[in-house]
Amino acid sequence: MDLFTCDLLVVGGGGAGLRAAIAVAETHPRLRVAVISKVYPMRSHTVSAEGGAAAVIKAGDSLDEHAYDTISGGDWLCDQDAVEAFVREAPEEMLRLEHWGCPWSREPDGHIAVRPFGGMKIQRTWFAADKTGFHMLHTLFQTSLKYDAIQRYDEFFVTKLLVDEGHCRGVVAIELSTGKIQAITAKAVILCTGGCGKIFPFTTNANIKNGDGMALAYRAGAPLKDMEFVQYHPTGLPFTGILITEAARSEGGWLLNKEGYRYLQDYDLGKPEPKPVLRSMELGPRDRLSQAFVKEQEKGRTLEGPYGHYVHLDVRHLGEKVIDKKIPFVRELCLKYMNIDPVKEMIPVRPVVHYMMGGISTDAHGATPLPGLYAAGEAACVSINGANRLGSNSLTEILVFGARAGKAAAAFAAEQAQPDPSILTQAHDEQRRLEEKFLRKTGGRERIATLRAEMHETMEESAGIYRAGASLEKAVEKLQSLQERFHDLTLDDRSYTFNTELTAALELSFMLDGAEAIVQSARKRRESRGSHQRTDYPKRDDKEFLGHSLAYRAVDGPPRIEYLPVTITRWPPGQRVYGR
Amino acid sequence: MQPTVALRVARYRPEQESEPTFQTYEVPFRKDWVVLDALNYVKDKLDGSLSFRWSCRMGVCGSCGMKVNGSPKLTCAAFLSDSMPGPIRVEPMDYFPVVRDLVVDITDFMRKLKKVKPWIIREHERPLAEGEYRQTPDELDTYKQFSMCINCMLCYSACPIYGLEPSFIGPAAIALAQRYNMDSRDEAARERLEILSEHDGIWQCTFVGECTKVCPKHVDPAGAIQRYKLTGAAHWLKTFLLPGAAR
Predict the structure, then answer these.
(1) In terms of CB atoms within 10 Å, which of A313, A317, A467, B155 comes out highest?
(2) Is a pLDDT exceeding 90 seen at residue A289?
(3) Is residue B246 part of a domain?
């Protein structure tokens, strides 16, 4: 087994990971920082984000307004000290990206342009046409190339964290091109591996979004926070789950049921006006829009196609010019993947899983309770997103908390000695496990795809937009049995060279852990808040549940759930009001 | 009955085969399926040992470039219906070493990308407190097209020069150099020009234009290369002829 060492190891090469690595290189240029990722950094899922990134920059806006929109949007489950830090540092981080070359869309005089976004009272979303995440990721990646201190391990799949005497000291990883299993030790590790939308059947998330980092931390004893909060995006394309950006609605698109009626007016989201109104109707928050879809379906007012129920997103009245100028990607996606032209036809859409508010529990500097382990981005839960993330906060979050985690982990690493070589024993054990359980495994009856499909079905039925105690209970048992059946996998591929069946199996195992944390946290939270809606407990219950759930892995059986108080600074819990 | 189509997929497992072979799989034909969906059907149901890269399935991550019936394509944007009645031939991209099955080694590009310094270079960095660099929509438009490259490698796979001359820095890297050269915030066009002139290839590009034809993002690397040649020639003239003229 080869052993590599570095001072600081970032797992994941998306927006948060690259921002963290650059922060390390800039603040502690003598530290050797490495980015390890199962894909080339520019393939990371940040690339798919479309709409934009929020930061206060215009006159008439204020940090308090951004904080309030975020906190009320999160149904008062955000930690308000973290939100205050977030909105304060957001403008500087966004400007820094501008200085690094991000092609932000501009006003005629050359200033940064902003657009409105769902759940935001004031326009503060910076955008790069409708490929904001793509441009942010490529800007970060290309900028990262100028730092010689940043070393990369591209296409290395991390299978385990090395933990010694209660400190995280590195990882074990498979080099995909050769199948070599290697140990990489470090004085601190930052997990920036993104979310786990692929636990669900209909999702905007890319194939790589399996919650690897969440499961790695969870297995190492760190808790996962607020995992029950799963954001549905109200407008995905059926079958592919391709996201039709909120910008389609903020530019004036309408959601129509099968009668051509703007049904959101029936769900306390304001009155239909011909022009878009902020925080109203189609610009209400994502959770409320997704919930309205389910209610429409129950009333029999949705349409039905080969991939289930859907409604229409209509942008035809905007005209070809506006569509091509403001939301060209929407038109491109519809033409390329659905053979539909939004200039002439309505777009079929349905709610699809989009984002995990929950993740590895961290403080406002990205530190997890496990010393030496940090996390940032969607993999982490700080929490600034509470029970429902506002659109355009996540791209800003990867910058602000990527940078924060990078700086904090670097300061920590600078004080640490290199890990003791005895840690290699753990790495050898992991190598043995991978070879025995996967590469040299014979027999077995279960196919990866079968178990994955059953997990999807279980999650959609029990932990979807609406949940109930009885079905969650059943899901806990079902997931337990899937965990057991996982040991009976049958594998076709024995090769060490780029074995994607092996990585798919490991990803499935990560997802099963994530699924358990989601279901168990949802089962224990007997209230409705933000994206977590219980039909058996339809009201928010601040007395019992104004707290973050923490899921700890149990030796046997479902995770143990504890609660952590929410930090309230200046905004006591209130009602979420939209459209009036 | 569900109609089907035959996929003829190139296989290469270095531990097993000394050279690539083809394997045929019968997959369902669906109107809304792309080649990548069919490959995933194979992986899930028929043969877990088939290796290929993919991620976003919406044409923006750049992972799933392969040759479909001989042409480099993003397989997430290649409908089965465009290749009916089949069989549909799926192979790894040309001119890159094959790691396994449909997976190619792109380390060469990763090295070349860094060589062209694809980041903003300025003599004086403005402090953040002074706000953004102003850039009008017109200034943005001059380089915007070149910033759309997703590094999918289709252009390298289509480039006959890269096939003959592996040291050629290649269409995408040149387009990305140009993306920074034309950005009003950047001041290093000269530096990049010198880097590119040192490398073989830019003068060998015969403006075949295959790169531009296959680009899924309409980047026009061929245009970038032509522009480079012009600037490069002007630069050369200035350096070598003007001193002579002044003599």
Answers:
(1) B155
(2) yes
(3) no
Q: What is the pLDDT of residue B198?
A: 76
**Are residues B124 and B229 both part of a single domain?**
yes
- Report the range of poorest mean pLDDT among A130-144, A192-206, A220-234, B214-228: B214-228
Q: Is A58 on the interface with B (CB under 8 A)?
A: no
Beta strands of A195-315 (E only): which ranges? 224-225, 230-236, 254-256, 303-305, 308-314
Pick among B37, B56, B82 to test the A interface (most A CBs inside 10 A): B56
Same domain, B126 and B80: no
The reply to whether B217 touches chain A by the CB within 8 Å rule is: no
Q: What is the largest CA-CA distance in chain B?
A: 84
pLDDT band for position B203 (cuts 50, 70, 90): confident
**Residue B126: pLDDT over 50:** yes
Q: What is the span of the domain harbouring residue B70?
A: 4-104
Is there a catalytic annotation at residue A249? yes
Is the separation of the CB atoms in B95 and B157 below 8 Å?
yes
pLDDT digits (tens, 9 = 90+) for A405-433: 999 999 999 999 998 888 999 999 999 99
Give the CATH number of the domain where residue B35 resides. 3.10.20.30
Residue B32 has which token pair? 């809304």
Distance between B160 CA and the closest CA of chain A, angstroms: 25
The one-character DSSP state at B179 is: H
Residue A188 — pLDDT band, cuts 50, 70, 90? very high
Which residue is closest to A497 within chain B, CA to CA? Answer: B100
Based on the structure, what is the number of domains in chain B? 2
Is A307 touching B (CB cutoff 8 A)? no
Of the three residues B53, B74, B104, the one that is the final residue of a domain is: B104
Q: Where are the beta strands (DSSP E) in A400-479?
A: 466-467
Amino acid at B33: W
Q: Is residue B225 part of a domain?
A: yes
Residue B126 and residue B68 share a domain: no
Please give the DSSP secondary-structure letter assigned to residue B147.
G
Contact A435, A428 (CB under 8 A): no
- A142 and B16 within 8 Å at the Cβ level: the answer is no
* ipTM of model: 0.95
Q: What span, in angstroms and rounded, lies between the C-alpha atoms of A496 and A182? A: 13
Angle A208-A214-A216 (CA atoms, 0-180°, nearest 5)?
Answer: 95
Note the pLDDT of residue A89. 98
CB contact under 8 A, A138 and B77: no
Please tell me the predicted confidence (pLDDT) of residue B51: 98
Per-residue tokens: B97: 């070493």
- pTM, entire model: 0.95
A179: pLDDT strictly greater than 50: yes
End residue of a domain, out of B77, B104, B131: B104
Q: Return the pLDDT at A576.
A: 81
- Give A145's contacts (C-beta < 8 A, 6+ positions apart): B113, B114, B117, B118, B119
* pLDDT at A267 exceeding the cut of 70: yes
Exposure string over A242-263, b if 16+ CB within 10 A, otherwise e: bbbbbbbbbbbbbbbbbeeebb
Give the CA distances from residue A528 to residues A81, A466, A537, A541, A545, in Å, rounded to whole numbers and listed in that order.
24, 9, 6, 8, 9
Q: Does some domain include residue B34?
A: yes
- For residue B42, give the nearest of B92, B86, B8 by alpha carbon: B8
Question: In this predicted model, which residue has the larger pLDDT, A3 or A64?
Answer: A64
Q: What's the start-to-end Cα distance of chain A, in Å?
A: 63
